[in-house]
From TrEMBL:
GO molecular function: structural molecule activity
Domain annotation Flagellin C-terminal: ranges: 201-286
A GO term from the CC aspect: bacterial-type flagellum
Subcellular location: Secreted; Bacterial flagellum
Domain Flagellin N-terminal: 3-139
Keywords: Bacterial flagellum, Cell projection, Cilium, Flagellum, Secreted
InterPro entries listed in its UniProt record: Flagellin (IPR001492), Flagellin_C (IPR046358), Flagellin_C_sub2 (IPR042187), Flagellin_N (IPR001029)
Protein name per its UniProtKB record: Flagellin
Transmembrane portions of the chain: none
Coiled coil: none
Length: 287
């Protein structure tokens, strides 16, 4: 029996220190809701969870990109819908001007209406934009064709959706600038008589078909975007769930572990007191 070194007490102290560390770790997990609070908790798990979190965040931004792109396509479609209405009215007025029951004065009035309608068609092409990007022609000042737009719909370089290039929904692009000039000149120049009106009816039909083609392209792009958004939302949900399995604490299991460690801690404290008390027996030998 030795008194200089109490091996039993040292062992009990070491066990108590480890148990205290385990209790503290368990309390940290229960208070934060995370199974992994630092790299030492699970180094490989932390690396995987961080990668999943980055992926989920990137997909979240892709969903936001997609919603913005859908808004863009809707703006373009609504604008072209109004342009289509204008062309419908122009066609109706040309039919009216093409009949010989319409007087020259009537045709002159119709010409003025047609000219103003086509001016408004150009105004729509000029003004339609999303966040400063002109959608129906090259720019607010440029009447050339609009360039294609690229929407980033994923975390990879190739995860993009591209709009159709070449949209030029103005009088020049739709081929009705000649009609506007004739309408502006009126009947005095001889370009807006009954025969001329009949000829321009085909021109307007072609313009309507061209415009409908561009609307269809934007509609297809919108459908593609909405499908991509739904897919991204599903992916994001699954990735977040996978991250949660790795990073988040299971409260039922961790509560059970905390209770176990707490009981062990109390038992260790009792064992330490017993180990220290056992040395008191040496005094009896000296009596």
């Amino acid at each position: 029996m030795r008194i200089n070194t109490n091996a039993a007490s040292l062992i009990a102290q070491e066990a108590a220190a480890n148990t205290t560390k385990n209790v503290s770790s368990s309390l940290e997990k229960l208070s934060t809701g995370l199974r992994i609070n630092k790299a030492s908790d699970d180094a490989s798990g932390l690396a995987i969870a961080d990668k999943l979190r980055t992926q989920a965040s990137s997909i979240g931004q892709s969903i936001s990109n997609g919603n913005s792109a859908v808004s863009l396509t809707q703006i373009a479609d609504k604008a072209m819908s109004e342009q289509s209405n204008i062309l419908d009215i122009v066609k109706t007025k040309l039919v009216q001007a093409a009949t010989d029951t319409t007087s020259q004065e009537g045709r002159a009035a119709i010409g003025k209406d047609v000219k103003k309608l086509l001016d408004q068609l150009d105004n729509i092409a000029k003004q339609t934009n999303y966040n400063g990007t002109t959608l129906l022609q090259a720019s607010a000042a440029g009447t050339g064709s609009a360039t294609s737009l690229t929407f980033q719909m994923g975390e990879k370089l190739a995860d993009t959706i591209v709009t159709t290039a070449g949209v030029q929904a103005n009088a020049i692009g739709l081929g009705v600038s000649g009609l506007r000039s004739a309408a502006a000149a009126g009947t005095s120049a001889g370009g807006f008589d009954a025969a001329g009106a009949r000829g321009f009816m085909t021109t307007v039909d072609s313009a309507i078909n061209t415009l409908n083609g561009w609307r269809a392209d934007f509609g297809s792009t919108q459908n593609q975007l909405e499908s991509a958004i739904r897919n991204q939302m599903t992916q994001q949900t699954n990735i977040k769930a996978a991250e949660s399995v790795i990073r988040d604490v299971d409260y039922a299991a961790e509560s059970s572990n905390f209770n176990k460690q707490n009981i062990i801690s109390q038992a260790g404290t009792y064992a330490m007191s017993q180990a220290n008390a056992s040395q008191q027996n040496v005094l009896r030998l000296l009596q």
